[in-house]
């Protein structure tokens, strides 16, 4: 019978440095992937909130139009060239602007009424995709568009 050398059969306790570094690298990689996916989901949620708020804006504008026969008072001139307007700072429109600013990074809702207030369009930047905007108008268009509409636009492109 062979004798067993106890020195060679001794077990080592713990992990080697390479094993620990490998586990740490894998955990770091997984954490970064999850963080990126969570951030994308968060930006999509901001955009969804903007779109829902704009639906409320259009509904309010249509009520205004049916009661008064025009879209007057939706937009507020900010001075300068015609068309440099933001959403009105009064009543429900102020709340819409506040809600949108909380979700789009603090940018006022751009807005324009036609001469005689027969039509309007409003738009704001989205966060999930840089350079995209959400636009609603009095012709019942709601759309994601690439690039900002012209300042005097009363219809979504």
Automatic annotation (TrEMBL):
Keywords for this entry? Membrane, Transmembrane, Transmembrane helix
Pfam families associated with the record: N_methyl (PF07963)
Q: Does the keyword Transmembrane apply?
A: yes
Transmembrane stretches in the record are 15-36
The protein's matches in Gene3D superfamilies, at most eight in alphabetical order, are given as: Glycoprotein, Type 4 Pilin
**Stored InterPro entries:** N_methyl_site (IPR012902), Pilin-like (IPR045584)
Protein known as: Pilin
Lineage runs:
Bacteria, Candidatus Wildermuthiibacteriota
